[in-house]
Amino acid sequence: MATSDAPSPRTQSPDGLPPRRRILVLAICCMSLLIVSLDVTALNVALPSLGRELDADISGLQWTVDIYTVVIASFLMLSGSTADRVGRRRVFMTGLVVFVTGSVLCALAPGLGWLVAFRAAQAVGGSMLNPVAMSIITNTFRDPKELARAIGVWGGVVGISMAVGPVVGGALVQSFGWRAIFWINLPIGLAALFLTMRFVPESRAPRPRRLDPVGQLLVIVVLGGLTFGIIEGGKEGWTSPLLVAPVALAVAALVALLVYEPRRAQPLLEVRFFRSAPFSGAFGIAIAAFAGLGGFLFLNTIYLQDDRHLSALDAGLHLLPMAAVTLFFSPLSGYLVGHIGPRVPLLLAGTAITASGVLLTRLHPHTSLPLLFAAYALFGIGFGLVNAPLTNTAVTGMPRSQAGVAAGIASTGRQMGSALGVAVVGTALGAGSQTAGWWIIAACGLLVLAMGALTTGRWARGTAERAAEALPEESVPIAQQRPGA
């Protein structure tokens, strides 16, 4: 087994990487998270400017954000399983190429329809980045404590993107226009592609999984139908056929998915994972937490620029308190998970997000800055604490050979939550009730708190052990493997 930097990354196993090389692989993977996260946080600041130039209403702005997250969520599990099958490095590099190409097309979009279409293409590339990068990290850091610290760093990059994204986005919009938000992905993406070719070793699962086209189609119908119904149907009222019919189709597709997938030997959606209460909890908490984040960013950019009449740059600067505490609490959360487990970070996260949402219900155009910044800081604390326990729980209780699938399912929960948060909160805003949007965010915090309490105790650990026993004998969960195994 290779133990030096000399062998080509095409042939060197992740098992033999020295510490400095492992850290470099982590940094390269974090670059992909940075550009995907920057694309969301920076674009939110650009929405009012984009809406004015392209003559987009609230629904158009929702689709600009949500088409990206819906497409990513639809293809994450496929990307994760494909990476486990054909090679994680290869799929990761393909994702970078597609994402950068989609970004350039978005920057050149002549109208709203074209922008939404190019955002969908960009999202196909994005679906190959974060879950595959997490799979690469999982297979590079073999020691569970090292993995927990690496995941803490990964979560810290989310904080960096939140700190840098709104400010950089505001500065770019104010200086060059909203299209510059997409141009910035070009140099970062190309740098990540070069470094991946040079330093990231190839890895794949020992037993490749087959494609599942039926499962993939059903996932797309579930996510697309639900999002379309909420965004388009919500404008006509909650009993509108435009809402009821797509949501009913989504529910039917979900039932079909849950019936069909367990019958396959190698399903796209590994239902057995959900026998573990911690894994199911991580999935549900991801939906709730990221629904809160999606709604928070969407509402705040409208509030700061339309209600308080701030420039895009000033709006970005106003979000710094949230971003700064997220940046601090994300690695702290990774440390806590590595030493005391996920329960405390999740409970604190749910409490902080709930408190933030309640404070934000008191907003008006002349709300004092101390109250505004306190609410932002509380949300940053909650979101900073929630990421590491989610990711750690999702991947460490599952077989290392299926890390891509497990990470893909967890990331799907994040993207589903973000899409639903923007859809529901945006619909409430379109109906003229900004306050209802803030209450929805508070409810997301309560869900994080409740599921965190329910899925991290002794009973939950017992379900995780029984779920692990139900997995194939050759698939040993990461948390049960010896360091270096």
Notes on the protein architecture:
This protein has helices at residues 19-54, 58-86, 88-107, 112-126, 130-140, 144-176, 180-183, 185-199, 213-234, 241-260, 277-307, 312-318, 320-340, 343-360, 369-396, 403-430, 434-454, 458-470. By secondary structure, the chain is mainly α. It has two domains: 15-212 and 264-480, MFS general substrate transporter like domains (Growth Hormone, Chain: A), CATH 1.20.1250.20; 213-263. Helix 3 (88-107) packs antiparallel against helix 5 and helix 15 packs antiparallel against helix 16.
Terminal Cα separation, in Å?
13 Å
Helix content: over 70%
Biggest pleated-sheet summary: none
- Number of beta-strand segments: 0
> What's the helix-strand series?
HHHHHHHHHHHHHHHHHH
* CATH H-tier superfamily of the largest domain: MFS general substrate transporter like domains
Beta-strand residue percentage: under 5%
Report the total helices.
18
Q: Which fold name corresponds to the CATH topology of the largest domain?
A: Growth Hormone, Chain: A
- CATH architectural type of the largest domain: Up-down Bundle
Name the shape in a single word.
Answer: globular
Radius of gyration: 21 Å
Number of domains: 2
**pLDDT < 50 runs, ≥5 residues:** 1-11, 473-485
Residue-averaged pLDDT:
80
Secondary-structure class: mainly alpha
Q: What is the quaternary state of this protein? A: single chain
Tell me, what is the CATH class of the largest domain? Mainly Alpha
